[in-house]
Amino acid sequence: MQEEIREIHLKDVNGEPVFRIGLFEGQDFIDFKVMGAFSVEDAEGNVLIKHVESDLKWRVKIKQSRPGAERYYLILYESFHKKRIQEKYEIARKFDPKVEIRTLGGDLFLQGKKIDNNTKYILVHGDYPSELTAKKNARRFQPEFNPKVEKETTRPPQGELEVFDAEYEYSAEPELAVRIVPADVNTKIHLYNIRSFDEILQKELHRDHIYNGTLEFRLDNQGNLMAVSELPLETYLKRVIYSEIGTDLPLEFSKSLAIVSRSEIMARIQHKHLGDPYDFCNWGHCLRYYGDDFEDENIDKAVQLTRGQVIMAQERITDAYFNLICGGHTEDASRVWEIDEEPVFHGKYDWKEVPTDFTSLQDEPMVQKWIHSRPEAWCNLRGRRVPESLEKYKKYFRWEVSYTRSELEDIVRRKTGEDIGILFDIIPIQRGRSGRLKEIELMGSLKNYRIRGELNIREALSYDYLESSCFVVEKELDDTGTPITFSFVGAGQGHGVGMCKTGGAVMAMEGYNVKQILEHYFENCTIQSIYEMDRK
How far apart, in whole angstroms, are the C-alpha atoms of residue 187 and residue 243? Predict the structure, then answer.
């Protein structure tokens, strides 16, 4: 494999790297109001309308558009090591000789100084027209690999937009995109009645959003309107922290989340959303970035006091993971995703010490006992007085959901495309360090069917997703021994890798500082500032 290390020179504002976040797509038009002075630019940054101060609503609409094109592909494995990806490549070729190695990222430069090398290698396969087609083809590589599906834009949309105020005093007709650039990065922009669709409720929703920084409205791949937020790193982080956990939390925890999130952002530059006009999306696939109006002094202080700080391990910025609530034990990253085993992401008990009753959560009797108990753990909120932001997460430390057998059979058919007939049982095959299932087998009257991968398991057994894959299955049987209902009794919410946000917040409430919190969740790491790095 040839070396393809690129130089990536980051755009910056006053020394801070600038990022673009995809907000939403699929709009026919967008109405907005800017709460301060701003200019209007085209996609190339050419000023169309200079220094506007307007109390009126504005509208962006489509004059004409031609949709773009996109494809789906499978990622079989990810690694920062050439030798490791080459080994996996040789194995994957036995399944299909058309697998390829792609190189992402490169040498990162900020204001002329090299701050990191985030070169990453991914093993990919396919050029699929739909997500469903890609998912069906993923089975070819199992059980050796557990592929995930990604989407890539192959041809951008084309067209022309129109932007104007309510009195049509100002107007412009740029191609492809229009940029609303406030004079101050903290200026708020109010977006009205943005349409979305709730997959669970199966209905259309409309709500207002408020953002700060530059907003770019442009054509999406279907030829409709989308929005992109563009702003400096430290400003971006404030809304990320709010979106990921809420307000009114201890300063030391907010500092911890700022460092972890900043690390994740910097480590993933040009790793995601290939071909898209933005760096990251605004949901859990990247980092959450909600369009709410909020103020929180601790979040502002946390970002300021940790300015530029990231977690370093193995001489690079760590792609630091976090989860909402681990359920009492975090998980190894390599047990959740097809990535390298790294000590910094080893799962561990979320408490001061490991209780002797729960030394191996890969043992089925011990997992049963674990899930049916409420052991001491930082993220066990029972009996604790916690801020309102944490109160709603109490229900996730231990949870239960039930389906009738016919309901679950229908869910499995829709989610996997497989008809297994009557579902008799769900057998655990493999668990990770935290008790999270990595592989299960469904026992059916027509066939047995194995599901591999934490997220695949959670998706296949729920209308949406099970809270986590750390669960045991309980059945109610009829007189013939056939299941009537299946109940999933589980622990935690999410993948469980890295810092438990709920546990970290409780640690801070009990007096632990940012260093102690990060050392608890990440092994063998140090903290450095990207603004002080010069890695020659």
Answer: 19
Boundary-marking domain end, from 136, 155, 174: 155
Question: What CATH number is attached to the domain comprising 142?
Answer: 3.30.70
Helix, coil or strand: residue 250: coil
H helix or E strand, kind and range, residue 120? strand 120-128
Report how far apart, in Å, the C-alpha atoms of 180 and of each of 16, 60, 189, 218, 232 are: 20, 11, 9, 11, 15
b or e along 383-416 (b: 16 or more beta carbons within 10 Å of the residue's beta carbon)? eeebeebbeebbebbbbeeebebeebbebbeebb
pLDDT digits (tens, 9 = 90+) for 293-308: 999 999 999 999 999 9
Whether the per-residue pLDDT at 534 is higher than 80: the answer is no
Beta carbons of 441 and 449 less than 8 angstroms apart:
yes
What is the mean pLDDT of the segment spanning 352-362? 88
- Taking the C-alpha atoms of residue 454 and residue 424, their distance in angstroms, rounded to an integer, is 21
Collect all residues with Cβ–Cβ distance below 8 Å to 204 and sequence separation of at least 6: 195, 196, 197, 198
Cis peptide before 143, with omega less than 30 degrees from 0?
Answer: yes
**What's 361's DSSP letter?**
T
Q: Taking the CB of residue 236, how many other CB atoms lie within 10 A of it?
A: 28
Q: Is residue 171 part of a domain?
A: no
DSSP-derived letter for residue 106 is: -
Q: Count how many domains the chain has.
A: 2
- Is residue 129 in a domain? yes
Segments forming the whole domain that contains residue 78: 69-155
Q: Which of 416, 420, 471, 414 is nearest to 442 (CA)?
A: 420
Q: What is the tens place of the pLDDT at every residue in 241-300?
A: 999 999 889 999 999 999 999 999 999 999 999 889 999 999 988 999 999 999 999 999
Query: In this structure, how many other beta carbons lie within 10 angstroms of the beta carbon of residue 490?
Result: 26
Structure tokens of 500? 């438990």
Here the tokens at position 282 are: 């605004």
Angle, CA of 14, 20 and 24, to the nearest 5°: 145
Indicate the pairing of strand 120-128 with strand 69-79: antiparallel
Q: Kindly state whether residue 433 falls inside one of the protein's structural domains.
A: yes
* Last-in-domain residue among 122, 140, 155: 155
486: in domain: yes
Taking all residues of the chain, what is their mean pLDDT, rounded to a whole number? 93
Which contiguous run of DSSP H or E holds residue 456? helix 454-460
